[in-house]
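Input sequence (70 aa), recorded before submission:
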Amino acid sequence: QQAMDSAEVVVPLDRQNVGELGLGEHGILLLAVKAAGPEGARMIYNPDADHSLVGGETLIVLGDPIRVRE
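Predicted structure, token format:
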């Protein structure tokens, strides 16, 4: 059985969309995006591949502990 780890990764700048990150190719599952806004943080669970990433959002990921930390 393989160990899994979760992590929160802050998107530094506006980036490509979720699908272009290629997380699945590295064995990483994107569980949610925590979108910061004027009304506070809101969670987008299981975001679509075409969700555009905005600087300041936080990706909540799950995967192999070494890969997650990369």
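Checked by second reader. The longest helix spans residues 65-69.
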